[in-house]
Automatic annotation (TrEMBL):
It comes from the Bacteria. InterPro entries: Aminopeptidase_N-like_N, Aminopeptidase_N-like_N_sf, PepN_Ig-like_sf, Peptidase_M1, Peptidase_M1_dom, Peptidase_M1_pepN, Peptidase_M1_pepN_C, Peptidase_M1_pepN_C_sf. One of its GO terms (molecular function) is alanyl aminopeptidase activity. This is Aminopeptidase N. Residues 457-549 form the Peptidase M1 alanyl aminopeptidase Ig-like fold domain. Residues 79-190 form the Aminopeptidase N-like N-terminal domain. Its EC number is 3.4.11.2. The keyword Magnesium does not apply. Belongs to the peptidase M1 family.
């Protein structure tokens, strides 16, 4: 291994760069096998730092020439870095010219410059620019870029880079060129270029401020009819950021380009966002409602980065949540504001919390736990996590809760006044919010509040209540604690905003307020309460904590029926389900098929399903049982197959006991008219799909319970709906109903689905994912997954396709993956090792499928450890995978 590839980087070691780069003039001769890059920079020493050699980052580059002020110079390569020792003395700027080549077609890591479908794309965040040229590849070095692209005109007619197109024309030999100038200084991670055969949808807009802009969405020819939704989302994003935060688009031209080979979701390169096709392309025939809503979020997210990320960027990568947490918060608010009505906003909030609790809470309790602002990393790509993104967004949300919406907007304004054009820290952001709200509780609590950035782990808040009948005094004691995480044994108390309400026994609301918990334990007193109330605690999920309270079933049923806070209303239903699942799992000896849900619970679910005024989307959320991973987190020791069996048995009970209600729900929600992905019709389609699944499940046992509902007709109806559906949501839901219920019609439906969509890669991803994620029946899924990997449409080098098969099995199908014979783990270790040399980022994500191995029951636990050890034993692992498996075994 070369120097610099093995060492852990610490936040505490931050040092300002020894040189600044003021301008960069890049010239590319694009060729898949050998692209030539001429990089002309103007540099100067940073006078604040002791004189030292210039060390430029580089990776997989072929260096052919280095000139300083036009003259040849001595240099050495050390640990991959280009080191220049004999530079001009003094503070005078000097010019450095570096000539290198690279091989984009061989770039399977998809970092730096790579080829996808015979087009060129780049991905530079976090450290991909060094794979394009030697550079100070760190976010606090901000330069002005001029970029010239040269390529064969017929093969690469479209040539794009950041900023404004200033020149273009013909060259000899059928080649052409384009020159782009970015008017804003930027760090190298925001550089981008695209070249290829692309077409675009265009839209001219006039901003609130009266400025004209050109918006463009570039895709492959043939996909243009799937760009309308992304363009609408982009226009909505521009308008929203102006209206909500007074932030306008600062470029004449703003481009989005889609590529089918992409490691993550999308990238906010200045003026030239590059997207995974999954988050751009949508038509009613090929995309589900979920796809439409994800596109809206991701388009918003990347656009909002233009201010929170690009205009103000990160000083170093430990500050990643400065831009990611804040921008996720902004995209969540954007989607809520577009959803409009309070009930639709609440649905979005519940969905966001569900992601946090099923993905981030386990991360925060496992070997990869890290603070929102990490203190160390081996490979920064491993820290693009749900903690940095989603928990980071919750931290920003708590700030808004504490200072109010207006106070928060003032804080944002001050943040940009102070830091526009600079690379700053999470502390700078929190300070701006505090300083814009002088005299506020937040300002006073700021040092303690910032523990959310420094302490990892999910805090637990325990609530204990006491009611004194004679005096009518109600006491609520809230205590907090936080379990140890790697490297952090002891935690100090957090600042925890807790939304509180009290309901009378009849469900009417007695009082509501926000309490800010700052001590390890505090007692609140409510005088004059007539009869013991039902507490509604942590309304709106006001903080990313685990709330422990010994709710009785009666209290939960009251909250489910009456709470004015939709989040806690939903949460009450989840708690009822969790309590039942845990009770069943406690009865080890009971076969899952003997599980019977009690009538009060069934009736509560029935009254939600039959409720005359609740939104269909909300009903669907309430009727969805907690995820297997979420249930697993509630246990000391997990047997994923038992968790799966119990949850499936509960679902089967809901299917059978509520059969008539599902039928009614299906009938009243199944026709949503002409396709529009608005919250109301999406909710209706979601509930209809859920009903269909349950009706098909009920049909499974229907032979015995054939009654007025005639359950056995439903698989046929589902098949018919699958064939006739006018949109992908209904079609896919019908297909899923057949697959999930294990019906014999699933096979012909899957075959037909493949035939219909064989030329639609994103739809094929769904086809693969559905099969790899299907409920296990006697260990049938792993053989099916292996077969899918032999399918001619499978390609492990394409991240979306690899995820649709391998991740859908290893990371999203615990009941099928955690096999007692350990064959799932063997498969996992083979795939991690197969992927690592191809694409370490994707391999490292997969490696995390066994994060929680220490919680598994034997013999799974030992088998999982062995599988991880087998991966760890391989020499030459990437930093990415090595960091994940080393931490897992620690
Ligand atoms: N900044 C991008 C976003 O969240 C993510 C890019 C991450 N890429 C990576 N290779 N780690 O919008
Ligand atoms: Zn982002």
């Amino acid at each position: 291994m070369r120097d610099g590839q093995n060492s852990v980087i610490y936040r505490a070691d931050y040092q300002a760069p020894a040189y600044w780069i003021d301008t960069v003039d890049l010239c590319f001769d694009l060729d898949p096998a050998k692209t030539r890059v001429l990089n002309k920079m103007k540099l100067r020493r940073n006078a604040d730092v002791a004189p030292q050699p210039l060390r430029l980052d580089g990776e997989e580059l072929n260096l052919s020439r280095v000139l300083v002020n036009g003259q040849g110079t001595s240099f050495k390569i050390d640990g991959g870095q280009l080191v220049l020792e004999n530079l001009p003395e003094g503070d005078q700027p000097f010019e450095l010219e570096i000539f290198t080549t690279c091989a984009p077609v061989k770039n399977t890591k998809l970092m730096g410059l790579y080829v996808s479908n015979d087009s060129f794309f780049t991905q530079c965040e976090a450290e991909g620019f060094r794979r394009i040229t030697y550079f100070l590849d760190r976010p606090d070095v901000m330069a002005s870029y001029t970029v010239t692209l040269r390529a064969d005109k017929a093969r690469y007619p479209v040539l794009l880079s950041n900023g404004n197109l200033v020149d273009q024309g013909k060259l000899d030999d059928g080649r052409h060129f384009a020159r782009w100038v970015d008017p804003f200084r930027k760090p190298s991670y925001l550089f981008a270029l695209v070249a290829g055969q692309l077409v675009c949808r265009e839209q001219r807009i006039t901003s609130r401020a009266g400025k004209e802009h050109l918006l463009q969405v570039y895709v492959r020819p043939g996909d243009l009819d799937k760009t309308e939704h992304a363009m609408n989302a982009l226009m909505d994003s521009v308008a929203w950021d102006e209206a909500r935060f007074g932030l306008s688009l600062d470029l004449e031209r703003f481009m989005i380009v889609a590529t089918s080979d992409f490691n993550m979701g999308a990238m906010e390169n200045k003026g030239l966002n590059i997207f995974n096709t999954k988050y751009v392309l949508a038509s009613q025939a090929t995309a589900t409602d979920t796809d439409f809503s994800n596109i809206e979020s991701v388009v918003g997210h990347e656009y909002f980065h233009n201010w929170t990320g690009n205009r103000v960027t990160c000083r170093d990568w430990f500050q990643l949540s400065l831009k990611e947490g804040l921008t996720v918060f902004r995209d969540q608010e954007f989607s809520q504001d577009l959803a409009g009505e309070a009930s639709a906003r609440a649905v979005k909030r519940i969905e966001d919390v569900r992601v946090l609790r099923t993905a981030q809470f386990p991360e925060d309790a496992g070997p990869m736990a890290h603070p929102v602002r990490p203190d160390q990393y081996l490979e920064i790509n491993n820290f693009y996590t749900v903690t940095v993104y989603e928990k980071g967004a919750e931290v920003v949300r708590m700030m808004q809760t504490l200072v109010g919406r207006e106070g928060f907007a003032r804080g944002m304004t001050l943040y940009f006044e102070r830091h526009d054009g600079h690379a700053v820290t999470c502390d700078d952001f929190a300070q701006a919010i505090a300083d814009a709200n002088p005299g506020s509780q937040f300002e006073q609590l700021l040092p303690q509040f910032k523990r959310w950035y420094s302490q990892a782990g999910t805090p637990r808040v325990t609530a204990v209540t006491q009611y004194d009948e004679p005096t009518g005094e109600y006491r609520l004691t809230l205590s907090q604690s936080c379990p140890p995480t790697p490297g952090q044994e002891h935690k100090e108390p957090f600042v925890i905003p807790i939304g509180l309400g009290l309901l009378a026994a009849d469900g009417s609301e007695l009082t509501s307020r926000m309490h800010v918990l700052t001590q390890a334990s505090e007692t609140l007193t409510f005088p004059g309460i007539d009869g013991e109330p039902v507490p509604s605690i942590l309304r709106g999920f006001s903080a990313p904590v685990i709330l422990e309270h010994a709710y009785t079933d009666a209290q939960l049923l009251t909250l489910l029926a009456h709470d004015t806070d939709p989040f806690n209303r939903w949460e009450a239903g989840q708690r009822l389900a969790v309590n039942r699942a845990l009770a069943f799992m406690g009865q080890q000896a009971m076969p899952a098929s003997d599980i019977r849900l009690d009538q009060p619970y069934i009736e509560a679910m029935r009254s939600i399903l039959r409720h005359p005024t609740l939104d269909s989307a909300f009903k669907e959320l309430v009727l969805t049982l907690p995820a297997e991973t979420y249930l697993g987190e509630q246990l000391q020791e997990v047997d994923p197959q038992r968790v799966h069996a119990v949850r499936e048995a509960m679902r089967q009970q809901l299917a059978q006991q509520l059969q008539a209600d599902w039928q009614c729900a299906f009938e009243t929600n199944s026709d949503t008219g002409g396709y529009v992905p608005d919250p109301v019709s999406c909710g209706r389609r979601a509930l209809a799909g859920m009903a269909l699944t349950h009706l098909c499940l009920a049909a499974r046992s229907g032979a015995h319970s054939a009654g007025p509902g005639q359950p056995d007709v439903w698989p046929g109806k589902a098949y018919q709906r699958f064939k006739d559906a006018a949109n992908m949501t209904d079609r896919f839901n019908a297909l899923s109903a057949l697959v999930i219920s294990g019906n014999e019609l699933a096979a012909p439906a899957l075959q037909k689905f493949h035939a219909l969509f064989k030329d639609e890669p994103l739809v094929l991803d769904k086809w693969f994912a559905l099969q790899a994620g299907q409920p296990d029946r006697g260990g049938n899924v792993l053989p099916a997954v292996k077969q899918l990997m032999n399918h001619p449409d499978f390609n492990i080098r394409n991240p979306n396709r690899a995820r649709s098969v391998i991740f859908s099995y290893c990371s999203a199908n615990p009941g099928a993956f955690h096999r007692p014979d350990a064959a799932g783990y063997v498969f996992w270790s083979e795939r991690v090792l197969e992927l690592d040399p191809i694409n370490p980022q994707v391999a490292a994500r997969l490696a995390r499928a066994l994060d929680r191995w220490k919680k598994l029951v034997e013999p799974l636990r030992s088998a999982a450890r062995e599988a991880i050890a087998r991966v760890a034993a391989k020499p030459d692992l990437s930093n990415d995978v090595r960091e994940v498996v080393t931490r897992a075994l620690a």
